[in-house]
Amino acid sequence: MSARRTVLLTGASGVVGRSVLRENVRDGEGTRIIAASHSAPVPEATGPTVRCDMTADRFGLDADSYAALAGEVDVVIHSAGLTEWGLPAERYEPINIEGTRRVIDFARQAGATVHFMSTAFVAALADTAPVELSADNVCRNYIRSKQRAEQLLRDSGVPHTIFRPTNLIGDSSTGWTSQGQIVQLMSDWLGRGRAPFIPAHPGIRMDFVPQDLLSRAVLAAIELGDEQGEFWVTYGPEAMDIETCLQLLVKHAAERGRTLSLPPVVNADELDPDAIASTAPMTRSYLSVLRDVSEVTRCSGGVLPTSMPELRERYGIGHVDDTAAYLTSLEYAAAHLG
Asked: For 174-193, what is each residue's pLDDT tens digit?
């Protein structure tokens, strides 16, 4: 686009937000981004910052400040949200759902396009899902909140895109991430030989995407002026299988001077309910997450939907080997995240 755009980035202090800011200046001046955060610092911000409370009317700003911000902004990257799993449904309402409604109201006033960060896990709740997701799945309430936020955008008439990333790992070339997430936590636990077994559904893929691929795609959409589209930021059928993932953990452990004996992979559908319930509390928690995330993938058809070919062609996202990126992410986490 010939005219330089001004972007409001919600959730600027989060994993996605900080990655977007980092990618924005990687190759030069970048897009002008106003970094919006509730209270946490945003070290990567090179432009204006604004304190915004997505759970409050007008983002917690006074009327004049809100109007001035709307008059300045052309695009919103909406990445603010509660991403922790396992919470009651009502905990997600104020920011994931009502926060999105406030972003829509702001975008209307600003005449702005919204680029929304959802989750690929919404595939598990689709009408076309081959298997129904369990009511007590640890991810269900979070997924449902993102599904509802997507629907708000579709019903709003506001120009928008939806990006649906799978679980994110660190930067594809350096492994950098602003903080550890579920993949790093689970991998560290597995890599230390803590799992007595691994509950998984047959044939599922371990779909992890480097966070910079998502950031590059969103920034490219802004540069091209895209105002519609739904993109699954996943590897889909290219993603590694569980056996490959475990072998990479063995390799990583060996590089750290440890010998990792692989635990057996157990069909989660055939698992005795007491097999997890009878373990120690921390082990029970980790095994339950492994089982439930596997179920999300199974309910998504075993392989997550993907837009990777389109992202590569339209947005210039390079071919990044997921196994190499996963190892790099593990190495960074071991060195920097404890």
From this structure: 999 999 899 999 999 999 99
